[in-house]
Amino acid sequence: MKCTAEQEAIIGAQGNIKVAAVAGSGKTTTLIEYARNKPVGARILYLAFNKTVKGEALKKFAAAGLSNVRVETAHSLAYRHVVIANGYKVSGAGYRTHEVAALLGLQGNGEKHAEFMVANHINRFITYFCNSGAAKVQQLNYLDVVRDAKAKTFVARFYPYIEAQTRRLLARMNKGEIAVTHDFYLKKFGLSNPVLPFDYILFDEAQDASAAMLGMVLQQPATKVIVGDTHQQIYSWRHAVNALAQTHFQTLHLSASFRFGKDIAALARHILGWKAHLQDGYAAVAINGLGNSNKKETKAVIARSNLGLLLKAIEAVTGKAPVKKIHFEGNFNAYTYADEGASLYDVLHLYNGKNQYIRDPLLQAMGSMAELEEYVENTEDMQLGMMVEIVKQYENDIPHLLQTIRDKHLPSEQKGQADLIFSTVHRCKGMEYDEVELAPDFISKNGIKKAASEAGTNGLDAVRLQEEINLLYVAVTRTKSHLRLPDSLVPNDFPSSLQITLLPTVRREERAGTEKDAYNWAAAKQKPSDVRDRSVVRGRRYRLWTAETDEELTKLVQTGATLDELVPLLERSRGDVATRIRKLGL
After folding, report:
1. pLDDT per residue as tens digits for the range 544-575
2. Furthest CA-CA distance within the chain
3. Cα separation, 18 vs 15, whole angstroms
4. Is the four-CA dihedral 309, 277, 430, 96 of positive or negative sign?
5. CA distances to 215, 308, 350, 400, 584 from 396, in Å
6. Who's near 111: CB < 8 A, 6+ residues apart?
7. CA 4 to each of CA 202, 204, 239: distance values in angstroms, whole numbers, following the listed order
8. What pTM does this model have?
9. Which helix (H) or strand (E) holds 245?
């Protein structure tokens, strides 16, 4: 292959290096050439971020005839050394909240569902510890990673108990009394200080490595090549650390993207420039778009959240020109189930007061939607929160809508036949499509500026806002030939481009009159739905009620504002406002 000067510098580099690679810059191809340039018989480990990337890398290294390269994930390495060696059983899906409560025999203190709230935080504390560089749970302060004020107050009250039970659950896994989680055996592998039998380690997607994973790699005597893109770090919620920032190796660059052209590259640079509002001395990123594809075979819709994606899918299958064949990246059920196991159907049954039909044990314990929302507030469980928002918006139309989507959904092996592919940013990372449309649930520059001014010196908020920018950057750079995105994400003076189409941002008051026209049940081959206003800000992530928003709602109700007037004023769904009014007794 003909390499660029940047690629040649990496291929011929000696000693430990880190490579800052922009989206679509051919880093895997570069790593293959790096490996090919090493002495015959050199033992090389390519460490992939996940199983999907591992599968693709296996094919590419095999096609290049590099049989001396072993392709693994950190978990596959740890599995052999820890799970098999100790005869552990693995809980593939981890432990749900109600399972943790049962395993530990947690007891409430009279407060509703306190045992489940404690169990939820135990689960999250274990995730925090297993992904950290700490050797002991006591070396961490879990409160450091709890953002919501109400959740923080709850954790502070129960902290000694939460910490003790966290250690107890880890001890039971360690003894083999219960199945271990994936996080656990990877953590145990790192704490064993393994020495891996390789001369070179190629560590890909390092910006999303956990501190535990990075520590294991850095302690190896092998020559290390750390590859990633700081601006594609989107897993800080899983306590990922940016390995490129944590290491002091010689830095080399891959700044040319072969995926997209110069206009998409210019937009990507503009979006990353928003970080100047969050950090002093932000250095502009060099991204050169060298792609020139004109294909229009694969078309995808990418959203920030599951909620935003489901809303776009509903529009696509019930619109005036409904899409016939669709595909969701990953298992479609993953978009309708929370990690805890609760489904949209469970939340809908709770909403309708039909608790006898609820399957999930956690939701079975809830007496009402108000109790579920209080649980969400005390645990920061955003997945359940988004399900609450969907149920409040679509109510009893949900079963028909989901069945319509399932009827049109194609399995993975038929993905190429889909008219439209749907994915969240996290699920399509590393993928590319000919045409991409973004859902309107990404943060805008104005949103960043406003949030930055409100965040002040809160470090957690600054990290979260930077990651919101990264999510938009990753989404924009999935396209090869054409991008469609809300005009609110692009400055007014941005040059017009044949590669970019701006979609008008529809205001709530403008949408209300057309909403029922877009909601076309005939197209979905279902009976017509009752006509009512379903207008919400499309794709808006679930938002907790705070003391300030409660006060705003109370004042508006006291002035005589009707429910129809409150919905647009508060920018929330009708069901959300109505439920809060009942809870506050207004």
Report:
1. 677 767 777 876 776 667 777 677 667 777 77
2. 80
3. 10
4. negative
5. 49, 19, 12, 8, 25
6. none
7. 20, 20, 35
8. 0.79
9. helix 243-246
Does the pLDDT at position 515 exceed 50?
A: no
CA-wise closest residue to 227 among 28, 482, 500, 468: 28
Phi and psi (nearest 5°) for 520? -100, 95
Extract the tokens encoding 273. 């420039």
**Structure-token match 């990953």, residue found:** 330
> How far apart are the C-alpha atoms of 400 and 142, rounded to whole Å?
42
- The answer to whether 327 touches 418, Cβ cutoff 8 Å, is yes
Q: Is 39 exposed, middle or buried (0-12, 13-18, 19+ CB in 10 A)?
A: exposed
Cα→Cα distances 405→313, 343, 368, 385, Å: 7, 16, 28, 22
Segment 427-452 shows an average pLDDT of 89
DSSP element (H, E) containing 516 = helix 515-518
Residue 99 tokens read as 């399972």
Distance separating alpha carbons of residues 23 and 42, to the nearest angstrom: 29
Q: Give the pair of three-digit tokens for residue 131.
A: 């992904």
Helices 382-394 and 398-408: crossing angle, nearest 10°?
A: 100
Distance (Å) of CA 489 to CA 95, 137, 174, 503: 39, 42, 48, 10
pLDDT digits (tens, 9 = 90+) for 464-510: 889 999 999 999 999 999 999 999 899 888 888 999 999 987 544 34
The two structure tokens encoding residue 177: 């009394």
Q: Which helix (H) or strand (E) holds 378?
A: helix 369-379
- Please state, as a whole number, how many other Cβ atoms lie within 10 Å of the Cβ of residue 147: 11
CA separation for the pair 33, 8 (Å, rounded): 9
Residue written as token pair 């995926």: 259
CB 103 within 8 A of CB 172: yes
Region for 380 from its dihedrals, namely left if φ exceeds 0, alpha if ψ lies in -120 to 50, beta otherwise:
left
**Could you give the count of Cα atoms lying within 13 Å of 566 in the half-sphere of its Cβ?**
23
Alpha-carbon span 3 to 29, nearest angstrom: 10
CB neighbourhood size of 346 (10 A): 26
Helix (H) or strand (E) holding 252: strand 250-254
Cβ-count burial of 560 within 10 angstroms (0-12 exposed, 13-18 middle, 19+ buried)? exposed
